[in-house]
Amino acid sequence: MRQFAVIGLGRFGASVATNLYRMGYEVLAIDANEDRVREMADEVTHAVEANATDEDALKSLGIRNFDVVVVSIGQDIQSSILCCLVLKELGVKYIVAKAVNELHGKVLQKVGADRVVFPERDMGSRVAHNLVAANLLDYIELAPGYSIVEVVAKPEFYGKSLQDLGFRARYGIIITAIKRGKKVVIAPGAEDVIMDGDVLVAIGEDRQLEKMEHTHNE
């Protein structure tokens, strides 16, 4: 099972951490603020009070063993940059860092962040879903329990029509569009065939969308 660490438990960091934990992943939540750590204690696997820029503290937490580390430090730009540097030096495999503006984002990339997110554009729940689904390009929450997702078509979909795949009948999911390179098929019909490289825009219940993403057709 993939393991995630989230450093910085403000609104965005807490949202990423709790969403990952609810999806069944191991999550270590880290913050220098004791109250925030206490509030998150029951929402994640482990919640720890630690300084994000303290190399020894991060090393003692085994931070390099985590598959993904999300740096979600608040407005302290210097600390977020330093934290990314420390994580890179410790050998963390994949770093996702929150930026407060474009310039901050460029600096984070220069010091080793593999992916930069902007909270005003990227909701915590969307980032959490995108981190765990390899074929998921985008995720937008419509209402509690319902979402629109963009999913890269899997090889077992190739050459089959929407009717053959039975997304609607099996999962109650509606494919609202198929993106094929620069072309977009809006409201595809049951006879439309999925091809290599297609991106499906699907709408439905979260639990059914998750089934569709992970179920392989016979």
Give a short synopsis of this structure.
This protein is of the alpha/beta class and about 220 residues long. It contains nine helices and eleven strands.
Which keywords apply here?
27% strand; five-stranded antiparallel sheet; six-stranded parallel sheet; 218 residues; alpha/beta; 34% helix
Q: How would you describe what is shown here?
A:
With 218 residues, this protein is of the alpha/beta class. It is 34% helix and 27% strand. The protein has nine helices and eleven strands. It has helices at 11-22, 34-40, 55-60, 77-89, 102-110, 124-132, 162-165, 167-171, 206-214; strands at residues 3-7, 26-31, 46-49, 68-71, 95-98, 115-117, 136-143, 146-152, 174-180, 183-186, 199-205. Strand 5, helix 5 (102-110) and strand 6 (115-117) form a beta-alpha-beta unit. Helix 1 (11-22) crosses helix 6 (124-132). The mean pLDDT is 87.
Number of strand elements: 11
Q: Which bin fits the share of residues in helices?
A: 25-40%
How does the overall form come out from the CA principal axes?
elongated
Structural category: alpha/beta
Low-pLDDT ranges: none
Q: What is the typical, i.e. mean, pLDDT?
A: 87
Amino-to-carboxy terminus distance: 25 Å
- Identify the strand order in the major beta sheet: 3-2-1-4-5-6
In terms of DSSP E residues, the strand content is 25-35%
How large is the count of helical segments? 9
* Rg of Cα set: 19 Å
Order of helices and strands: EHEHEHEHEHEHEEHHEEEH
Largest sheet: 6 strands, parallel
